[in-house]
Write a structure and sequence with these properties.
Blueprint: H1 3-31, H2 33-40, H3 44-60, H4 62-72, H5 74-94, H6 98-111, H7 115-123, H8 128-148, H9 151-160, H10 163-182
Helix pairs in contact: 1-3, 1-8, 1-10, 3-6, 4-5, 4-7, 5-6, 5-7, 5-10, 7-8
């Protein structure tokens, strides 16, 4: 396999992994809601604030995240947002104050807005002829995050409590952010995109 193609596929795989984590963190409050309610003594209305705060911040950050990616580049934007989200997730797993936990989930939502920066990152590697396929793979991978946030998270929460898997997921996200930070992309890859070979099976050029 061509070296440039291999690097492009590796980039796509890593972007999908981060997007899976983003989707996981978005839906996990609903999975652990019963545990949260029992531990904190919250009613259903109060529990919805965790997901609401996350999704509100996530929605509000769509435009700013794109502006951030345009200003500093897709990779730096993804790194910043991923590290922000991971820190807030870890804080959420360690806090005991309801208002502080809602605030942490709001910050989590801000950090999870990596969709547009990931698109910017892919656009730097994939030409228009194959960018649609690459972005479809990225967006389609998010469903795996929902799957991972259901039975596995529910099982781990029943065995170790909800805090252990949440903090563990935060640490995994933190490690992913640092990995993305130290993984520098080759220079002049924009100029070489047209040299990428065809996908196996004649699916078009990268």
């Amino acid at each position: 396999m061509d070296k440039t193609l291999r690097k492009a596929l590796l980039l796509l795989f890593f972007a999908c992994f981060l997007y899976i984590l983003s989707f996981f963190h978005r839906v996990c409050p609903a999975v652990i809601s019963l545990d949260l309610g029992r531990e904190l003594g919250l009613d259903t209305e109060s529990l919805t604030l965790f997901s609401s705060a996350t999704m509100l911040a996530y929605g509000l950050m769509q435009l700013p995240s794109g502006l951030l990616a345009d200003a500093v580049g897709g990779r730096k934007a993804v790194v910043f947002l991923t590290l922000l989200a991971s820190g807030a997730v870890i804080a959420f797993g360690m806090l005991h104050s309801f208002p502080a936990m809602v605030g942490a989930r709001f910050v989590v939502g801000i950090g999870l807005a990596i969709t547009v920066p990931c698109m910017v990152l892919l656009a730097a590697w994939f030409p228009s002829a194959s960018f649609g396929r690459a972005s479809s793979v990225l967006l389609g991978s998010g469903g795996l995050g929902g799957i991972l946030a259901a039975p596995p998270l529910a099982f781990l929460s029943s065995q170790f409590g909800w805090r252990v898997p949440i903090v563990g997921a935060g640490l995994l996200t933190l490690a992913s952010g640092f990995l993305c930070a130290i993984r520098r992309h080759p220079k002049r890859h924009r100029a070489k995109r047209h040299l990428l070979p065809r996908w196996p099976g004649g699916l078009g050029k990268y």
